[in-house]
Design goal:
The chain is of the alpha/beta class. The chain has helices spanning 30-39, 55-68, 86-89, 94-107, 121-138, 149-159, 167-178; strands spanning 3-8, 49-51, 73-74, 144-147, 187-193, 196-202. It is globular, with a radius of gyration of 16 Å.
């Protein structure tokens, strides 16, 4: 049996409504840096650390890694769902981006790609499925995985037995995801058991 902790990154500049940057380059906000520092005292001591390819997960893990002298490993299947191409949102703040995000989800096409560098919903689903079927089985017990809120939501969705293949599935997932408690720096626990993987929220 294995147990992992899944940590949503601390508040990013994008979460705070800042001007768009390329997905992999988005830093933490000032509040996010404080949240990342506080995580050191909320997480189990001296565990292996894995991060996505996004800067905000590395920045969130940094205080913990510095405390224990850990070099984080990059696990690409933890990557954010990037539904909007940077070319579409260049120069926009959070308020300006919101209608484009809403329109994307209303369109509800799992295979739609909005431009260069953007994911399709189907690709995002496959990434989380790859974690469940392959990556998690080879990770060290007790590892801390610094990732993204929508990724954790998709994992929860799949563990509940729901699909993410059709337009209807995509719409249902979006409703589920937007109502799931997922504050920045949220910590979840993923445990392997005889009944399969179980995901639970860890209160601060």
């Amino acid at each position: 049996m294995k147990t992992f902790h899944l940590i949503r990154h601390a508040q990013s500049a994008a979460n705070a409504g800042g001007i768009s940057r390329p997905e992999r380059e988005i830093p933490l906000s000032g509040l996010g840096k404080e949240q990342a520092a506080a995580l050191v005292f909320r997480l189990p001591e001296n565990r292996p650390v894995l991060v996505s390819e996004m800067r905000r997960t590395r920045d969130t893990a940094a205080p913990y890694c510095q405390k224990y002298g850990i070099k984080p490993a990059i696990l690409p299947c933890l990557n954010e769902f990037s539904c909007l191409s940077f070319d579409l949102i260049r120069g926009m703040d959070g308020e300006a981006r919101r209608p484009l995000t809403q329109a994307y989800w209303q369109h509800a096409d799992p295979h739609r790609r909005t431009g260069q560098g953007a994911d399709t919903f189907a690709e995002f689903d496959a990434r989380v499925e790859a974690f469940l079927q392959n990556a998690c089985r080879s990770l060290p017990d007790g590892a801390l995985l610094f990732g993204h809120g929508i990724w954790i939501a998709m994992l929860a969705w799949k563990l509940l037995g729901f699909q993410a293949a059709s337009s209807a599935d995509m719409t249902a997932f979006r409703a589920f995801q937007t109502h799931l408690p997922m504050p920045n720096a949220a910590v979840w626990q993923l445990c392997d058991s005889e009944a399969g993987w179980r995901l639970s929220f860890q209160a601060a």
